[in-house]
Amino acid sequence: MEKIIGNWSTRAIMTGGEAKDICKLGQGEDVCAFLVASVSGFGCIRMDYPTNTPIFSRLKDGTINAKGEGGWKGCVWVDELEPKLDYSHEEIADVFAREKAAQVWCDKRTKNKVMDVELAEVFAEILKEATDKIETLNAKIEDFRFWIDPQGWLQKHKLIDIIDAQFNEMFPLREKHE
Asked: What single string gives the DSSP state of each residue in 8-44?
């Protein structure tokens, strides 16, 4: 098995024997859902975003025949993932921050620059900290709104929109309440 590391995702190519022995090809629903076949042979798209997205969704919904998630002995990802479908808010936030940081090198003004992975990781950490602060602030605002308007009277009479407008003027980074 061989990993192919791209700019945005990683996939693996393998022989037919590896697909059978490792990915459980031919073993009914135990086969890995991320195993793919093409004219050039077999491959794994477990870490190939966004190609893997519908497979994760179908695994979670139980609407796919193949139930295997990989990550078992011999799998190219065995040391890199713990097979699961329910990711924590923290894990999703980390991935989102890394994706946004990596997009800096996709901008037309910077696309010819070599990506600095360490710089991208630091940027992702800073972005995640800022996002966490905004989420915490939004949660506190929601608590405060419920405290000052537990019955929804201000909302009903559109007074909460006036409060929101004034708050947004004072704190422009806050996301608008819907």
From this structure: S-EEEEE-HHHHHHTS-TTSGGGSBTTEEEETTEEEE
